[in-house]
Specification:
2 copies of one chain form a homodimer. In chain A, helix 1 crosses helix 5 and helix 2 packs across helix 5. The first copy, chain A, is built from 6 helices and 2 strands. The termini of chain A are far apart. The first copy, chain A, is mostly helical and 153 residues long. Chain A has one domain: Arc Repressor Mutant, subunit A. Chain A is globular. The interface between A and B is large, with 55 and 55 residues. Chain A binds a DNA duplex (23 and 23 nucleotides) through strand 2.
Chain lengths: 153, 153
DNA sequence: TATTGTTATACTCTATAACTATA
DNA sequence: TATAGTTATAGAGTATAACAATA
C-alpha cells in the first residue's frame, strides 16, 4: 500500500492563495478597501466583537496593526467605535448599516469571482472541496488561537 | 435553490496556510533551511531547471530574491551552479546528491507532519480533498504564469 | 541590442516596545 | 498593578532599477 506521491500541502495552497489575492484585489480597490480593511469588515460581520484586540486576533493580525485600519473605516462611516460605558478602556466596535451593506456587497462580488475558479470542478467535487476546506478551517481555528501571519523568512 | 452561505475561499485558506507554515518551520530550521531554501530544493527536485530566472518563477519568487538562497545552498554543497558551456550567461542549477537526499528527507518529514492535519478527515474526504486541491493547483499553475507573492496591503 | 545573472537601494509591512488612560 | 488601546520605531522582506557579462 504505497503512499501516493504528491506536492506538499503548502506548495499547492500558496499558489492558490496568490490567485485568490489577485482575484480579490481589483474588487477591493474598486471600493477603496485594503485587504486588512476587508478582513476587519468580515470579522465584524458575524457578531459584534467586544475588544479591538479580540478582533485583531480573530483575523490573524497584531492589535497595533488594525488601528490605522479602524481609524480609516470609522472616518468613512463604515464602523462605529465607542468606549464601553461599563469599562471605558475598551472600545465597542461594530459595523454601521452602511458598513454592513458595503461588506455584503463586496463579499458577494468576491464570492462570485471565486466561483469562476471553482467552476473548473465538477459540482460534486466543488461541493466536497468547500465542505472539507471548511472542516479543516474550523479545526485549525479552534486548535490554534489566531495568530499574526508569520512572514516569509 | 439558494447558495450555501460560506466564508470566502481566502478566509479559509489563509489560516490553513499559517498552520502549515507553523508545522513546517521547526522541521526546516532543524535542517537550517529557510522557507525559500526549501522552495528552491523542491523546485529543483523534479527536473533540473535551465535558468535561475525560470527556477525563481517556478517557485513564485523574484529572480533577485533567490540569489542569496542559491549562494547559501551552493556553499553548503546542496546544489551545483555552473555556467552553461553553450551559453555562458546562464547558470545550470541542479541538486547535488546530498541536496537530493536532504530534500527528500525533509519533504518526507513535512508530509508526515501534514498527515496529522489531514487525519482529522475521513479517508475518503482526505483523498478527495488532495485530489481536488491538486486539480486546482494545476489549473492555476497553467493559467497564471508564476508570479512573485504580492504583499499584504 | 537583448538577455542572464548580480548588486544596491528604497520601500512596504511588521512586530516590539514604550506610553496613556482607565481599572 | 494590570489591561485596552495607541504611537513610534527599528527590523525584516521585498521589488525596482542600475550594472556587468555574454550573446
Amino acid at each position: 500500500m504505497s503512499e501516493e506521491r504528491r506536492p506538499d500541502l503548502a506548495a499547492m495552497l500558496f499558489p492558490l492563495g496568490r490567485v485568490l489575492i489577485a482575484i480579490e484585489e481589483p474588487i477591493l480597490s474598486a471600493s477603496d478597501l485594503s485587504m486588512w480593511a476587508y478582513a476587519v469588515l468580515s470579522g465584524l460581520g458575524e457578531e459584534p466583537v467586544r475588544t479591538q484586540a479580540a478582533l485583531a486576533a480573530a483575523i490573524g493580525a497584531d492589535k497595533s496593526r488594525v488601528i490605522p485600519v479602524l481609524d480609516d473605516l470609522q472616518e468613512r462611516g463604515l464602523i462605529s467605535r465607542r468606549p464601553d460605558p461599563a469599562d471605558r478602556r475598551v472600545r465597542l466596535v461594530a459595523l454601521t448599516p452602511e458598513g454592513r451593506s458595503v461588506r455584503s456587497r463586496v463579499q458577494a462580488e468576491i464570492q462570485r469571482a471565486e466561483e469562476e475558479l471553482l467552476e473548473r470542478l465538477s459540482p460534486d467535487d466543488r461541493r466536497a472541496f468547500l465542505r472539507t476546506l471548511h472542516t479543516l478551517y474550523e479545526s485549525v481555528r479552534v486548535a490554534e488561537p489566531a495568530q499574526a501571519m508569520p512572514r516569509g523568512s
